[in-house]
Amino acid sequence: MDINGKVVLVTGGGSGMGQLACRMMNERGARVAALDVNEEGLAQTAQGHERITTFRVDVTDFAGVDATVRRIEDTLGPIHRVYNAAAIMPFGRALEHANVQVHRVMAINYGGLVNIAQATLPAMVRRGSGDFISFSSMSGIIPTLLTSAYNASKFAVSAYTEVLYHENRASGVRFACVCPPPVATPLLKQGYATVMPRTVELMPPIQPSEVLDAIEASLAAGEFWVFPGKGTRFGYIMRRLFPNLVWNDCHKKEGF
């Protein structure tokens, strides 16, 4: 899709993957709506990029999300592409993870996606065009020790987006569910700030630009699943065909 002059909405636009997506879309001529709770990060995203407009909004607040989407459509125009990049990634043992933190992970990573989908997709489906991009993870394909909350949220993202796609596959809207390995963004640092599983630590992180390039290639090819980086598609196959082997390897790496 030629994105020049079109409106692109990006959640998590104040840092990492979302920030890079905003700038990439701006360079391609799009009018970008960057959403985040991080106002300082949003200002950095928009600095020097005149077609990026920032909106402070909490994706867990549906009323706020819906009002912001209406404002974007009124001021910038119809939304043609959505990047769901807002996420948090604290790790820890399931029974030691603070209850409030577990629910916050689900509220942002999955609930935020649901809120954005319900606020943006009906109009895109009515128009019969657009791109809806969900950032899941290989953690939304393969569960790992010490990552229960994050795993659960990303499995939910994968399942919800897959159903969205199949319910609307004849609508003209293109859907993509992105499942990268670890990516060199500030999000990865949240894992290191808590407890980083060896299973994750042993995988060299890829660059966010590689993820965004893989999305473009998959959209052009009409592919729903996006597996950036080496070995991710193989990991998807292994999880489906040999789950016990995957778990045995995980236990061996973590040592329990």
Describe this structure as you would to a colleague.
With 256 residues, this protein is an alpha/beta fold. It has a single domain, classed as Rossmann fold. It contains ten helices and seven strands. It has a seven-stranded parallel sheet, with helices on both faces. The chain starts with 6 loop residues before the first strand and ends with a helix.
Q: What's the structural blueprint in terms of helices and strands?
A:
Elements: E1 7-11, H1 16-27, E2 31-36, H2 39-46, E3 52-56, H3 62-75, E4 79-84, H4 99-127, E5 130-135, H5 148-167, E6 173-178, H6 186-193, H7 198-201, H8 208-221, E7 225-226, H9 232-241, H10 243-254
Helix pairs in contact: 1-2, 3-4, 4-5, 9-10
Kindly report the average pLDDT value.
97
* Quaternary structure state of the chains depicted: single chain
| CATH superfamily caption | NAD(P)-binding Rossmann-like Domain
Outline, from the CA principal axes?
Answer: globular
Order of helices and strands: EHEHEHEHEHEHHHEHH
Helix content: 40-55%
* Tally of separate domains: 1
**Strand tally:** 7
Q: Supply the number of helical segments.
A: 10
Which architecture per CATH?
Answer: 3-Layer(aba) Sandwich
| SS strand fraction | 5-15%
CATH topology type: Rossmann fold
Q: Whole-Å distance between the termini? A: 48 Å
Read across the widest sheet, the strand sequence of neighbours is: 3-2-1-4-5-6-7
Biggest beta sheet summary: 7 strands, parallel
CATH class: Alpha Beta
In the predicted model, the low-confidence regions spanning at least 5 consecutive residues are none
Rg is 18 Å
Structural class: alpha/beta
